[in-house]
Specification:
2 domains, globular, 13 helices, 310 residues, single chain
């Protein structure tokens, strides 16, 4: 299978509810494969070619707000067109899986493979203080394997997740071992997993996808992930805990905190503090690559820690 085809098949098998996209080289096979497979006749997955990239991402916004597993894909300039919608979904804390099969740029650039969108992906891409979770496959096999992982992360952290591929992997053909299909969730399962979702039912009309953040204090708290109750309820870690132990403990805490509908950004902020301090403690100064010295990193750690404590 081509990498693009492996991704599309994995979306069907991962129980995706909907795909909204628009053709662009070198990722057009994603949409073509989904149309040929007609998953709407087997699993009930919606597949729709929108009139533009902007339309596609806003369809994803609506489906994500209802708690559905939604996917979109594009390539470089198409991803740029989707950035406002991706930023909106990050601001509204909604899950999304987006595939970027990178080609050369800037502008319309070329249709040849490239890896030029690294900074756009890892720095968030759109406006505002947010980041994407980014998975970068190195093979056609990983184009398939990363899909269920990306869905799990998107719903766990209520944040868009990007699979950052390129034209080589998207077009390359390799043997792929496909995972067993995961059934699509029922409406009842969606409501149970996503207590924040807008379902349209009268009983749930009080739910609101909040995107307008009025007030500097509230905006700062949102950007820092500084919801104090969640940060305070996290259990202290043993002295001398390493980065791996810290990360595992915080991930476990995420599930527990989510049961109380705690805004997940507070947990993400706590992750950032603990992981940054772990890096400082081990001397693994990866941040040096971005030009930060130890004093600057320690200052940043204090800023994050104080914000999470408020």
């Amino acid at each position: 299978m081509k990498g693009n085809e492996a991704f599309a098949e994995a979306c069907i098998r991962a129980g995706a509810d909907a795909y909204f996209g628009y053709p662009i080289t070198p990722q057009s096979e994603v949409l073509e494969y989904l149309m040929a497979q007609k998953p709407y006749e087997t699993t009930g997955m919606v597949v729709l070619q929108a009139e533009s990239e902007v339309s596609a991402i806003n369809m994803c916004y609506g489906a994500g707000g209802a708690g559905f597993k939604v996917v979109t894909s594009s390539s470089s300039p198409g991803i740029s067109l989707k950035q406002e919608g991706i930023s909106y979904m990050a601001g509204a804390e909604l899950p999304l899986l987006v595939l970027n099969v990178v080609r050369g740029g800037p502008g319309l650039g070329d249709i040849q493979p490239s890896q030029s969108d690294y900074f756009q992906a890892t720095k968030g891409g759109g406006h505002g203080d947010y980041r994407l979770y980014v998975l970068a496959p190195s093979s056609v096999q990983e184009m398939s394997d990363f899909v269920p992982i990306a869905f799990e992360m998107a719903f766990k952290y209520r944040n868009p997740v990007m699979i950052l591929s390129d034209g080589v992997i998207g077009q390359m053909m390799e043997k792929v071992e496909l995972f067993d299909p995961i059934p699509r969730r029922t409406i009842e399962q969606v409501e149970k997993q996503c207590p924040w979702a807008t379902t349209g039912k009268k009983a749930n009309r009080e739910r609101n996808i909040d995107l307008v953040i009025v007030g500097t204090d509230r905006l700062q708290a949102f950007g820092l992930g500084a919801a104090a109750p969640a940060a305070r309820r996290l259990q202290p870690l043993p002295a001398g805990a390493g980065a791996a132990e810290i990360y595992a403990a915080r991930c476990a805490a995420c599930h527990e905190q989510a049961q109380g509908n705690v805004p997940p950004r507070s947990l993400i902020a706590q992750h950032a503090v603990e992981r940054l301090m772990a890096v400082l403690g081990t001397g693994a100064m990866r941040a040096h690559a971005e030009g930060l010295d130890r004093a600057q990193i320690e200052s940043l750690a204090r800023f994050l820690r104080e914000g999470a404590a408020r």
